[in-house]
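[step 3/7] fold_predict: job queued, chain A
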Amino acid sequence: MKSHTLSPAQNGLQGIITVPGDKSISHRAVMFGAIAKGKTTIQGFLAGEDCLSTISCFQKMGVEIVRDGDYVEVHGNGIEGLQEPKDVLDVGNSGTTIRLMLGILAGAPFHSCIIGDASISKRPMKRVTVPLREMGTQIDGRDNGNYTPISIRGGNTTAVRYHSPVASAQVKSAVLLAGLGGAGITSVTEPLQSRDHTERMLQAFGCKVVKEGLTVSIEGNQQLKGTTIEVPGDISSAAFFLVAGAVVPHSQLVLKRVGLNPTRTGILNVLQGMGASIQIENVTNEELEPYGDIIIESSQLRGIDIGGDIIPRLIDEIPIIALAATQAEGITVIKDASELKVKETNRIDTVVEELQKMGARIEATEDGMVIYGKSKLTGSIVDSHGDHRIGMMLAIASCLADGETTIRNAEAVAVSYPTFFQELIQLQRR
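[step 4/7] structure written:
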């Protein structure tokens, strides 16, 4: 366990940041390259622990993957080129790795066993294993396949028309990827629109995907072809600096090449709704994964209600939105976010517990939280609980606090943003 002690940013935050590559896109680029025919080159890959777990798993299945910093080459031989792993596949802390990989393994005619860290062992997998079993895949694990270790034996899958009870890109992606392994048309219908990186990237690999409202369909036995993927900056990582720029007095930040996929930009809508001063410039690559530069500066925020169909577009950003709400005038209500309970931690409980330690007036509800602004924060000893997004949220909170803040289990931040603490310190005006 590592601790990190931070001092308040008394003179504000100023500077230009290029956040690491998008985690969701980096995962998918490696996975899709591994089951494609030919070479896939990935530029801007996020070399965080989660994405490195994805590389490791596919290397164990015989895929040649070469990485030099944020440049990766994947030499795929199609899904039929995957080999039965001689050892267990360890996904570490990565929920994206295990859930999407289960979809791929559903179409692979061999046996695999998947494990992860203590956090993964508590995260529910039935949302993926139930539809995969409907498609003919043999799956076993603790609690009838709900928790790791999970054993899977794949092969030719049967097409399915699946109505997902939750808006989850991981569930949608797993079912669609399983559908690639067999004949017929597989479709997934969601209650709300979830992030669409899988659909966009499958098309970049030459796969035909049909979207009709909240339903996405794919025809089986399509062959992916190696391609070049440019990974934009991760808006979920950028969110911490966006909030920092808005709530820390005397701040102005420029975030370069941030991903602007419309299914991920809920954080921008919320901050603008709260009154933040935001400018977006130099938008490009709009057909595949749009990105651009975001300028944000200190703003007077106001409390708002956040819920409904915007929640899937900002579910990972709710911890840092909660911090923003502590500095807004009035009351902020976050609802319809029960999905937070099955993340790396129960993020409703951990956000409330840790911000209360620093003096915030915040209460947990069954599906979200209520935050009363404006709160004066005090430096304290806090804990990430092994959750990277909680750790980064607390680091931004330290910029506002009166006195030093010590974050326990600070190493969790490396899962998605290995250089986060160094960059935050560099932005503080001396």
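[step 5/7] annotate
The longest strand covers residues 252-259.
The chain has a mean pLDDT of 96.
exit 0
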